[in-house]
What we know:
Blueprint: H1 3-15, H2 18-25, H3 29-43, E1 48-51, E2 54-57, H4 59-80, E3 90-96, H5 97-102, H6 104-114, E4 118-124, H7 126-134, E5 140-144, E6 152-166, H8 168-173, E7 177-183, H9 190-197, E8 203-210, H10 213-221, E9 226-230, H11 231-239, E10 244-245, E11 252-262, H12 269-285
Parallel strand pairs: 3-4, 3-5, 7-8, 7-9
Antiparallel strand pairs: 1-2, 5-11, 6-9, 6-10, 6-11
Helix pairs in contact: 1-2, 1-3, 1-4, 2-3
Amino acid sequence: xxxxxxxxxxxxxxxxxxxxxxxxxxxxxxxxxxxxxxxxxxxxxxxxxxxxxxxxxxxxxxxxxxxxxxxxxxxxxxxxxxxxxxxxxxxxxxxxxxxxxxxxxxxxxxxxxxxxxxxxxxxxxxxxxxxxxxxxxxxxxxxxxxxxxxxxxxxxxxxxxxxxxxxxxxxxxxxxxxxxxxxxxxxxxxxxxxxxxxxxxxxxxxxxxxxxxxxxxxxxxxxxxxxxxxxxxxxxxxxxxxxxxxxxxxxxxxxxxxxxxxxxxxxxxxxxxxxxxxxxxxxxxxx
Length: 287
C-alpha cells in the first residue's frame, strides 16, 4: 500500500479539505485528489463524501483511519532504524494564559523527563488557542472550560478553583455596591461574574473589562473592585492580607481544565501520552 497515498488520506481527514491537506503536505491539490482516488480504487470503497465544497469522511474512512495511522507509524519506526541522525518528533502544544503561568512549566518539565519529544509551546487566550487547534496549527492544547466545537476532542484532566477577591480597604468602603473587574464577553470566567451582574439582590456595575487575569489581579490589589480569579493566582495575596475572598451566595467554585485536539488524532500515541501525563501530574499535585 502506497505510503504517500496514506499520508494524503490522513491529511484530508485531519484538515477537513483537499486544499488544506495539499498545503500541509506541500503538494498540489490535483495530486491529493488523484492520490485519494487511487486509494479508493485500491480499497474498493468510497472514502470521502463530497457536497459542494464540503468533504466529509465516510464510515469506511473512519474504519480505515486507525489502520492508516498504524501503517505510517510503522513506516516511520522502520525508517528510523537506519537513520544515524534522527531528529526528535515535535509536539506543538497550546496553553491558555492562567495554566501557562501557574502550572505549565512543571507539567512540561515532568513530560520531558519521560518522553524524548521536542515541544513547541504557544500561549494565548482560549478563543485563539481553540482556533489554532481547529486549523491544525497546534497539535494539542491545555485550556480552561469546555469547548463548544464538535470537530475537537476534549479530555478532562482536572479542575481549577476560582474565588471572588477584593482588597480589604475596598470591601470596607464599598459595602452593598460593587465595582466588577471582569473578563471579556465570551471568556469562560465571564459567566461567573454574570452571576453577580444578574443577581437582583446585589447592586453592581462593571468597572473594568480585560482580556487577561493579570490585569484584573492588579486592579483588585489596587482597590478598584471585585474580580473572579483562580485561587492559585491569589493564594499568596490572601495569606498576606492584601486580598480577601468575597462571599456572595457562593464562596468558591471550579472551572474544568481539559485538553483539546483534532478529533481524528485522539489515538495518536504522542497525544495520548501527553493527555495521560498531564492528568497524572495534576492528580499528583492535588494529593
